[in-house]
Amino acid sequence: MKKVRRSKSGITLITLAITIVVLLILASIATYSGMEVIKSSKLTVFTTELKMMQSKINEIYQKYKDNEVITINNECYYGENKEEGQKSILEIGTVVQDQSLQLLIQQLKGDAEKYRVWDNNLIKQLGIEGVEGRFLINILERSIISCEGLEYEGKIYHSISQLPDSLYNVKYEHKETIGAKEIYEDSDKSQYYGAIVNGYTCQNSQGVNNWKIFYADKDHIYLITDDYIHYDDAPKGSGGSSLSKYNNYKMGFSTGILSGYSGSSDITDSKIQKLNDQYFEYLTTNNVTSSSNDMKAVAYMLDTQLWSGFKGNIAEYSIGGPTIEIFMNSYSQKHNVDYRTQAYNKNGYKISKDGGKTWEFRYDKLLNTKDNFYVGTNKATGVWIASPSAYANFSVMYVGYDGYVGYTTYSINNYGFRPLVCLQPSVRLEKTGDGQYTIVQ
Fold first, then answer.
1. Average pLDDT, whole number, for the chain?
2. Same structural domain for residues 154 and 209?
3. C-alpha distance from residue 389 to each of 10, 16, 51, 440 (Å)
């Protein structure tokens, strides 16, 4: 019998099987890689479109604040100071009527009434090219939500901030930012109060070395100058009257300054009254007013028109210094103590260092002098506080650089001013370093 010779170039069944397995592995790798590429490309498109939309929303928001007009299909939309009957820039788009979209906004902790639907046609009319789909837009809060969303890692996302890596904050220029509400709800205020805030400018910025976070309520962040302002930057009163002057940083309330005010009746804006909320509640409850000189001095400090030189375009108002309520709240929250205020009579406030068990007109060395953010520098004996003292009808509150909190006579010119600014609710801050934040527009 002849022997069958195997070809040296032949393929055995084992070799063939190995080859098939290898090809299957390579195919699965290629398929997986292809799927990852597709998934990655979809994510890129998703984030890119939202970035483009965010840039446009920021631009439109600025036009709204600058009171400019936007024309779409020959229809005009007006800025913040629109007249009655005119459409607002905030109304661009259509009202959200789809219940599924309303539910989506609610799930993302938004208010459906403040959002508008922007379809692809409107987006193109606004000059945004290369963006498909529909979006939910809240111009006032600069918030953007994709109606269709992106399926990624088994979930559907509608904004970049929802993604696991949280690379950007869609609401405000894709950055990790904080607003008044976040600061207000954070139990650790020490990381905020006293931190420098960059990016705030105003007419009198040249007279301020730094603006710092002083306080936050649910809606607003308050900034304060880090040191006393120069005499030349302190506003003049009616008829060009000036403060009494000891030196460039020590000032008091002159007769000319006081002559421009009647007292508590000059403070009619509810937002400004709220800064001395307990006091004005006392006046209302007891149906009284104050026309004493201490209230005239306080009226000067709370005159937002006079102090408007410190009001930048992202501020609601500026005043001559913090009130005692804001000051004690800020210090207590940062230093974990329970200092309180009480409108004791029509003259003004008493203060407590033990949670309201005892009340005094003044306390020596109440504050930690190592924290000079509150006590200030020795350029002046102390800082004027925009609140009257219950001690007498000539007494205005002040905080000394030695830690004193209490009262002094309005005419003594040893004290300085540190203006306080209330930022608009929409303003947010980005942390740029330890004790450093910058304003995000």
1. 88
2. no
3. 105, 97, 52, 38
Torsion of CA 192, 220, 207, 369, to 10 degrees: -40
Show which of 142, 175, 208 is a domain's final residue.
175
CA dihedral 49, 138, 218, 273 (to 10 degrees): 140
In degrees rounded to 5, what are phi and psi of residue 219?
-120, -20
pTM of the full structure: 0.63
Structure tokens at 389: 């003292």
**Confidence check: pLDDT of 333 > 50:** yes
Over residues 96-104, mean pLDDT? 92
Residues 320/298, Cβ–Cβ less than 8 Å: no
Report strand pairing: 177-178 vs 428-433.
antiparallel
Nearest to 292 by CA among 196, 411, 200: 411
Q: Indicate whether 360 and 228 sit together in one domain.
A: yes
The pLDDT confidence band at residue 30, using thresholds 50, 70 and 90, is: low
Give a yes or no: residue 6 inside a domain. Answer: no
Q: Is residue 95 over pLDDT 90?
A: yes
